[in-house]
Amino acid sequence: MKKYSTYLIVIGLIGIVLLVAFPIRNYYLFLKEAVAPLTDAIPEQTAVIIKSGSLQNLLKVIKSAEPGKMPDDSTSGLSLKKLAAYIEKYSSQSDYFNKLAEQNEIMICLVPDKEMQPEFLFLVQIGKTSPADIRDEIEKIIPAGTQIEKIKHKPADLFKIKINDRDYWFFISKGILALSFNRQILEQSCLTTSLKANLTNDLSFSKLSKTSGKRVDGVLIINNRKLANLIFHLKEENTSDLRTSLFNGWTALDLHIEEDRVIMDGFTSGRNDTTLLSGQEAVEADHFKLFPAETAFALSLSISNQEKYTT
């Protein structure tokens, strides 16, 4: 009997050690995990990025101008102004999210789904905050009785919240909180955090980032070819001509917020090949006088020596 009692005690001690060891191991891995830049979580097919060092600054941009309404058949179906109202409402209910909105970097991405419909992806830098702590903070601001469902996924678990027949998906990984209305978009973002080939390591995007967004309220960053794909619902094989053109790169517009307007300037284009306009000189743009007075937008590219122009 003593022999069996000894075995039971040993097994019990092993069980206790394991129960204690697993949480400690998980916490150690969490502390060891590096905090990644938000660009680690941006899917490759992203067409537009709005970046700001503060969510509150970004809300000012959104409320100052109406960039447009999402298509009615998209998952979100929300205008950006309505979206901004939701964000302000819920962030004001939590000290944690209120501080997050004031101090932390945020990006709003426009990403096409498999049907080439635009969907939102929100990325927020949260630093060393565990998924459990984020869930606790979210539970404080969502309606009473609302459940947060955990879905096992790699490289990070996904979470789903259902409010008024609308699904909200999010994950927390490497100091990034990512949220979308579309599971497919969130899964793409989650997968991108584990890839070496992402925007953080993209030479043209990196070059663009270093020259834009200095002492401004926000930056509008556009992938020219991806935006063309999104607007005209084009597949990659239909935009092969754009791959070798001047516009196969990134464009950045710095955003300056004033009381009655948003000023965009600082046009830059990031691309690995910088020889596109070598050997060219400034050309007088006198053809603009031919445009009607009501023209809202015009784009002109002039070259002085066609033989030296390379694509």
Strand and helix layout:
Elements: H1 2-32, E1 48-52, H2 55-64, H3 80-91, H4 95-103, E2 106-112, E3 118-125, H5 131-141, E4 148-151, E5 158-163, E6 166-173, E7 176-180, H6 183-192, H7 203-211, E8 218-223, H8 224-232, H9 240-243, E9 250-257, E10 262-270
Antiparallel strand pairs: 1-2, 1-8, 2-3, 3-7, 4-5, 5-6, 6-7, 8-9, 9-10
Helix pairs in contact: 2-3
- Work out the strand percent: 15-25%
- List the strand order in the largest sheet: 4-5-6-7-3-2-1-8-9-10
Report the average pLDDT across residues.
76
Largest sheet: 10 strands, antiparallel
Helix content: 25-40%
Number of E-state strands: 10
Low-confidence stretches: 67-75
Radius of gyration: 24 Å
* SS element count, helices: 9
Helix/strand class: alpha+beta
Q: What best-fitting shape do the alpha-carbon axes yield?
A: elongated
Distance between the termini: 86 Å
